[in-house]
Amino acid sequence: MSYTRRRATRALRVYWILLLLVGEIGLYQWHIGGCKWPTKDPAAPNEPRPTTVAIIADPQIVDHYSYNQTGLLLRTVEFFTDIYMRKSYRFLQTIRRPSHVIFLGDLMDGGREWDDDQWATEYLRYRSIFTTRYPQNTRVYDMAGNHDIGIGNTVVKSALKRFHRRVGPTNFVIEDIGGHDIVLLDTLTLESDDPEVSHDSRSLVERLADGLTSHPRPRLLFTHVPMRRPAQTYCGPERQSAHKYLPDRTGYQFRDQLLQNTTEYLLKNIRPRAVFSGDDHDSCTVEHPIDPNKPSERSVATEYTIGAFGWASGVPIASYALLTLYPGSPATAAQPTYHVQRCFLPYQLGIYKFYIASFVATLIIVAAVCYSGSHSWHPAAVCRLDGSEDEQHLINRSAANNSSGLPLPAGMQQGRWSFSKRGCLLQMIYILRDLFVVGLPTYIACILFFYIF
Predict the structure, then answer these.
(1) Which PANTHER family match (predicted)?
(2) What is the Cα–Cα distance from 155 to 192, expressed in whole angstroms?
């Protein structure tokens, strides 16, 4: 192996090892580590420690119903989408250490369509992706989405019962968490005309309405589907879609926004300080007016629609949110407050594009090195007979020294360069093989890190 080839191979090995470590691990640490818990400014002296809540929307793990794929193609898509969320959730837990995690529904893509056996298999897959690393310090709440149970009059009763049985209740109140009450409300069943389906949701809203005076803590409402707002209401600068407003579409088992009467019903009876929703897969921040005919400390409720956690959800960059709850302090008369920070995960398609660009650049560099190394210089030579006619001796001389411009002596041939295509191709294969035997184990080690540790 030539000196140039050795240097190029060594440099490319180091480059690919560093590239894979950064692309598969480093970028996740950097993005999640760079998005910190929002804090109160200025902080009240001697105020109790705040409660931290991570909010994740629409993990919607890919399955047969996502792209109508089967076989190896489906398994490939599942692998790359699963490992992205696995890595992101792993670092979210280890770096941020939230005390509570709330999933805003759509845990699976085809959850409402599966039979019990298929659903159980997919749910185990979901749980393996979102494994709780610190169960003694972290409470996790899974809400239902329309992909899990349906919506309104098309709620799949068997899927709803299965969710209650295997996952947990779809309506829940976390009382006095950081000085607030968190209301996890199943608005999917709330909009059903079937009393059997909507009973639990309506009962919870009525109970909350009755407790407005007896439980004066500020409320935070969590719903899978966003609330109704005026058409083309601006969502804010963090929205990635070309349309900077929430669409208003209705189709098979989905609705982009709650009905107007549902929205008014919830705002008047729950009177939330803030609303957190998912379903749209993109970010949106709007304000909803609360019933002006009733006294309230606040006249509006801010709604935060959280982007999807997966990278194959129709928006370029996946995201989540961090919520900090300050309980206030009677000693200082500080009131409970909440603070929200949107966080964005690595741009996975951008990582893959950079890998492809690096591979193309590697091929060009390897081809250039091998092309240069496959040229041979044949110096000037003279043939003479010595003894017999069958014996010839080749006398090598350098044609480069013939700078006089005079013709070479009789029988002497001019020196020349020659190129070996086969030699160039073999060198390329050897270098790429050397890179492959280093790069592939590095990539496998990066992936196994999130399955073993």
Answers:
(1) METALLO PHOSPHOESTERASE RELATED, METALLOPHOSPHOESTERASE, ISOFORM E
(2) 8
Domain boundaries, the chain: 10-349, 376-399+409-419
Would you say 181 and 174 are in contact if contact means Cβ atoms under 8 Å apart? Answer: yes
pTM of the full predicted structure? 0.86
Checking if the pLDDT of 351 tops 60, the result is yes
Chain segment 127-186, per-residue pLDDT in tens: 999 999 999 999 999 999 999 999 999 999 999 999 999 999 999 999 999 999 999 999
- How far apart CA 301 and CA 290 sit, in angstroms, is 7
| b/e per residue 314-341 (b: at least 16 CB within 10 A) | ebebbbbbbbbbbbbbeeeebebbbebe
Q: How far apart are CA 191 and CA 266, in angstroms?
A: 12
Report the candidate in 218, 368, 189, 413 with the shortest Cα–Cα distance to residue 301.
218
Number of H helices, E strands in the chain: 12, 18
Please tell me the distance from the alpha carbon of residue 309 to that of residue 89, in angstroms, as a whole number: 9
| CATH class held by domain 10-349 | alpha beta
Cβ-count burial of 303 within 10 angstroms (0-12 exposed, 13-18 middle, 19+ buried)?
buried
Tokens encoding 335: 């009131």
Q: Which residues pair with 412 in a beta bridge?
A: 382
Distance CA 249, CA 207 (A): 31
Q: How far is CA 70 from CA 66, 75, 77, in A?
A: 10, 8, 10
Angle of the 71-91 helix axis to the 116-129 helix axis, nearest 10? 40
Which one-letter amino acid corresponds to residue 89?
Y
Contact 128, 90 (CB under 8 A): no
